[in-house]
Each structure stands twice: as structure tokens, then as C-alpha cells.
Design a protein that fits this description.
single chain, 25% strand, alpha/beta, 432 residues, 24 strands, four-stranded mixed beta sheet, 14 helices, elongated, binds ligand EPZ
Length: 432
Amino acid sequence: MTIRSAAGLEEPRLLVRGGNRLSGQVAVSGAKNSALKLMAASLLAPGTSVLHNVPDIQDVLTMQEVLEYLGAIVEFADGTMTVDTSGVQSQVAPYELVQRMRASIQIMGPLVARFGQARVAMPGGCNLGPRKIDIHLRGLAQMGATVRSDHGFVEVRSDRLQAVDMFLDYPSVGATENLLMAAVMAEGTTTLENVAREPEIVDLCKFLISMGADIEGAGSSTVKIHGVEEMHPAEHTVLGDRIEAGTFLIAGALTGGEVEVTGISPHVLDLFLSKLRSVGVRIEENTRSIKASGDIDSYKATDVATLPFPGFPTDLQAQVVVLLSIARGVSVVTENVFENRFGFVDELIRLGAEIRVDGNHAVVTGGRALTGAIVRCPDLRAGAALALAGLVAEGCTELRDVHHIDRGYERFEEKLQGLGAEVERAGACCSL
Ligand code: EPZ
């Protein structure tokens, strides 16, 4: 039986057969949550910027469409992207692109800084809950821009942004990035306090500095940006994807195998690794790689609470819930970053997990044997987590709506196959 989408297209599915121990090495791709912002930052300077280690994933292709819509010329092959922004004419991000990918709004700061205006479709909510941009807009308004919304768009205008001292209500990743990119050409020195400290923010600051920006304090909770008159194109290599690394480390731990991820430095995952150790996973750290292995019968319950960096990453919450579903005992997982990030739990229960969600807490009763079933991916990280669950479920698990996974994981099933997993993208049901 072939599943067809509303448009009658055959919907790709991922078929995962459980039971194999995963082992070997896997190289992580460049970080999605950095690459998208570096592409937006290239708008700050006329000319051609070059980005290396760019992951070939759907979200990168969507951001490419956004830049091309504005008039940029983008070439992308074998992980290297050139972005020529000399021909950028438009400062509008259309609804079709923004609703496909929220991160499109990260062009707002660069466009206002370089062209004095930006008109961006308001991003709606998503499966993770309301995704407000009030901190982005308040910051731009404090920098002297006029901000108004009409017809589903937000329009920001300023002949020249003015430096400001601002304390962010919440260390939002997106707001920190947009305000950083807006402030690099503002008049005077901007101080942003209580900002996000994610490694992807540091990567963005490195690129902005190579474009001529003058920034202090990247990675700390206070950054100072001394405004400059102009920026120039630059070249940069995207840092490795810590969320992809964490996903594969859990794949190894879950199957009682031994998986080494390369192309990542362990310090970007400190708290995550210490939680895996508390469960009973053996972790080996090297300068540019991390190895995970363990005996699943020894795994025990552990409480986890997601927080902004350096806290436990919310983008690895679903994956760790799968691990805790097989660990002995009761764990409490608390989601503090997004209001509605347990949407995948019902799908995991279909595979035999025992989880009770109460507000932003999930109570996971572990030590359950999972059995394969048909499940739907509600979003990117939950989709990857359900694939991991399929690796330990008895029989075959069929994942639908895998387009979510393709948004953020490059060659996901090939990499799993390289570690010994029985996984394939297919039309027919469970032929494995
Ligand atoms: C980035 O989203 C990442 N996306 C997310 O990864 C990640 O989960 C998130 O940071 C947290 O680490 C990209 O980088 C493209 P936030 P972002 O602004 O920038 C509230 C993935 O799977 N908030 O830190 O949207 C907001 O509603 C994705 O790769 C406001 O209230 O994250 C949310 O609850 C999913 N007002 C919380 O803060 C604002 O103005 C975190 O949002 C801004 C945010």
C-alpha cells in the first residue's frame, strides 16, 4: 500500500527495524542553527561571502530561497556556499517562506542595518507552541527604529540605528542574533545584557567580526557592540552541529553499542554529557570527538530540565526521553524553553513507552520494552527521537511526515546505516 499526500505525491517514510547494536564513527555536519544565521548575516555587506561546512538540509535551501527572493545570488555545492548580496533590491520576506521556516525572520536585523528597512511576514506559532518575537521588536524600537505591523507583516524602518543599553527579558537565541546583527552598524556602542550564550551565537559573532564588526563578550551574558560605518564580505566555516552529535550519541547508548561522533568539541555539550553519565552511559571525550557506549540493563532514571545554554538543550529533550523510557525507574523531564514540546509523547506511547505529561513536566516510567508501530513525526527533533525509538523497538517502526527530519538532519538514514542500523526510506510498508 502506498501512502499519498493530499497532492497525491507518494509520501516518503522511514522504516526502522529494531535490535541492532550501533557502532562506529559518524562525522557531524555543520550546525543548522548557525548556518541559517550566517547566511542572513551575509546581507550586512555588499559582495560575496563564502561559507564552508554548510549542511545540505531543507532549512538551508529555504534560507537560500529567502536570499534569492531578496535579489542575492547563491551558489551551493559540496558544503560550500557563496552568497553575493551586491544585487539585493528587496527588503521583504514573504509569508510563504516565513511560515515554512521561522528563522527567515533573522534577516530583519541585517536588512534594517544595511538598507534602513525590512518588511517580514509575522511568523505564526509552530508545534512547539507560541513563538513570539516581542523581544526582537522591542530591541529594534529601543534602537530608534519605527516598528509597525499590518496585513500580517511587521515593518521596521530606521535611517541609522542608535546604540542602546538593553537587558533582554529572556536570553532568546533569535532575539540576541537579530539585535547583534542590527547593532554592528548602529551609531555608538550597544550593550546587550542577559543575551543567549549558545555556541551558535559565538559562531555568528566570529563571522560578524571577520566581516569588520567590533564585538566583545561573545558567549557571555553581556555583549558590547561598537558600531562601525560599514561591513565587508568574509569567509567562514560553520561549527559542527551539537544537536546532531547528541542525537547520534543517544542512538549508540540506546542500542547498547559504541558510537563516536567526530567534528565537535565536547564542551558544547557539557551538561547533556553529564546527564548521560548519570543515566549510566559511558562517555569518552577527546578534543574533537565524543564516544558513547553502555549496557542498557544498567541504565537508571535521571531527572532532566531544559534551559538556555549552558543548560540542557531543549533540542535534545525528545531524544533523552526515549533513552529514559528504557532506563529503570521513574524520571521527570521538565521543558522550560517551549510551552508545548511534548507533542511527540503520544507517538512514543504508541511504541509502548509509559509517560504521563502534566503541564511542562513529563513523568517517564522506564524499563519498558518498545514494539514497532506506525508513528507521525510532529517536528524535527521529535522525528529524530522516534527514529531512535525504532532502533530499540521490537520489529519494524514506520515513520511518517519525515519531511520534518529532512529540515535539519543531513543524510540521516545513511549515517544511521553507516553505524549498522537497519533503516530505509521507502514507499512500501515494513518490508524490512
Ligand atoms: C532557536 O529558536 C533554535 N532555532 C531552536 O531550534 C532552539 O530550540 C531554540 O533556539 C532554543 O535553543 C534556530 O536557531 C533556527 P528563542 P528561537 O528565541 O531563536 C520565547 C531546532 O529544532 N521568546 O530562544 O526561536 C519563545 O516563544 C529548533 O533546531 C519570546 O517570548 O528560540 C520560546 O518559548 C527548534 N519572545 C523561547 O523564548 C521573543 O522575542 C525560546 O525562543 C523571542 C523568544
